Sequence to fold (388 residues):
Amino acid sequence: MAPHDCSEQVYTLVNGVTGEVDGNISSATLPSCNALLGLDEMSLTEFGDALKAGDISEVVMIRPEEQIYSPSVVDDAVLEDTKKALNERSGSEIIHNRSDPFHSLLAEYGDVVSKTPPMRLPSDRGVRHEIYLVPGTKYCVTRQWPLPKEQYDVIDAFFRDKHEAGLVRESQSPHSTPTFCARKPNGKWRIVHAFNKLNAATIPAQTQSLAKMSYRTTWLSPIDLVDLYYQLLIRASDIPLTAVSTPRDMLWEWLVMPQELSNAPATCFEPIPFLGCFIGKRGLRADPAKIKAIVDWPVPVNLKDLRKWFGLVNYLHKYSENYADMARPLSNVLKKDMSWCWDTDQQAAFEAIKVSLLHAPILALPDPDRPFSVFCDASEFAIGCALL
Fold:
């Protein structure tokens, strides 16, 4: 079988015995990721209605091309070797491997390297995960849905281990969140709690708290801890909120911070850099990767493209001087009942915002020991203020 033309992807079928031509076939090029992402979006309700109506014939999960063709994804032996190699680079493995170049360094500070994951209730370290609910919230309840039989035993074993370690206890809470399993790349199961309702009713953490605490700080050091979430206790009054159900009608509640809680990263101060910013001793600066994504963004061709780009830009608008004025031609296009229009004004605004972010300043962190002055101004189309 040989192609006539690689661009056409047309192939001739030749009989391997007689040598005769049996015909031609065409091979359609798969759509690119951009083509797929350019398809119309639909809400979860619309998706459910389309499924019931039979309008959707197939559902696929999109995976990066390099993963599709990677032998580590499809070859179990290679996958296991990859997993082993990754594990050997963790601190608990290096400390047992004298030939590792980092062994001597970790051995010197061996008292801070855990050789095994923590399997007991941690002591109170003065930091507990706290859950603040939106006023008026009553109960966060989602019924446990049916699962494949193979997940039953996995979930039971997981909670049996956590119960023996003292990390969970049986619950009589009025709250309930379902539990299910998700397959890891290494083929094993990961336990997941669908805290959707609880997270939706949770007041978001103040993401600026880390920046405020970083004033006058010279060194900022991230650290990766073994099972970090299980090393932090839950505030006693919030324990009933963490109640999770299992397919065999058990109800457990967590005494330590479980995965999937929306404010868990804020409790750990995990993200450095965080929220598109880098924190340093000079102040806050925009993440260069985020700025590059904005600058490299192609010219929008419809409202959907513009909204995506605007969503990213608005995240960093505080680094752009006179942002509201520059963005006005673009924000006008997004107003209700406005038809799509991309003219010289919109193109100029699009480029001006990119240029302004390329020269984004470093924002000083506020000094809580000094007085603040608030300067406000307004015009027909914008309101602005500055904290000095």
